[in-house]
Amino acid sequence: FDAVTVNKEGKVFVGGIVHHNLNSRQSVLVAKVDTAGTIEWQKVLYSGYRTSGDSIFGETTSLIPTADGGCIAGGFESAKGKWGGWALLHKFSDTGDIQWTKRFFYTGDDYQDAKVIGLKAIPSSTNFMVLAHRNWGNTSAGATLMECSETGDSLWSQVDYDYRFQLSGVDSLGNVLMIAG
């Protein structure tokens, strides 16, 4: 698992990968666990292989709980049969159903990856912050900071952050907090 978050009822969401040992590429994994550690649901998305199954791979890198008992998972999803792909957001209901999916920043280049590298809730709001690396495979590429609505739509964005920054949180005044990595 690469990501863990807890909702207001104490339910734990975990996310990461199901690893297929294919050049570090893999399937998306998201699960909900109760306070006793019992899995309520788990979702594995995509075959995790570039040339077989659905020919899509991905990963979950960050999670935030939502007010309705579900969660938003951020990470990466490849284009079908490609190494490159999108920064990805999935909204899961409290029962594990995908309510919406949003994809950002893929250019169509076979080797260009975009990836969500941070999600943070905004206090007293259903909106949330996203930090996405626009080209994961290229160290000269920058990151984009976005505020998204509860439906995953981008409300505004700022570009060219250093991709080594980490999204630390949002304070009660709405200030975005970052940590240099």
What does this protein structure show overall?
The chain is mainly β and 181 residues long. Helices cover 0% and strands 55% of the residues. The chain is built from no helices and 14 strands. The chain has strands spanning 3-6, 12-22, 25-33, 39-45, 58-65, 71-78, 85-92, 98-104, 115-121, 128-133, 143-148, 154-161, 165-170, 176-180. The chain has a four-stranded antiparallel beta sheet, with no helix packed on it. A four-stranded antiparallel beta sheet has the order 5-6-7-8, with no helix packed on it. Strands 9-10-11-12 form a four-stranded antiparallel beta sheet, with no helix packed on it. The chain is globular and about 45 Å long. The mean pLDDT is 86.
Summed up:
It contains no helices and 14 strands. With 181 residues, it is mainly beta.
Strand content: over 45%
Strand order of the largest sheet: 1-2-3-4
The ordered string of helix (H) and strand (E) elements is EEEEEEEEEEEEEE
- Mean of residue pLDDT values: 86
Q: What is the count of DSSP helices, taking H or I runs of 4+ residues? A: 0
State the helical fraction: under 10%
Give the end-to-end Cα distance, rounded to a whole number of Å.
20 Å
Gross morphology = globular
Estimated radius of gyration: 16 Å
How many strand units? 14
By secondary-structure content and strand pairing, the structural class works out as mainly beta
Query: Sheet with the most strands?
Result: 4 strands, antiparallel
Q: Would you identify the regions where 5 or more consecutive residues have pLDDT less than 50?
A: none
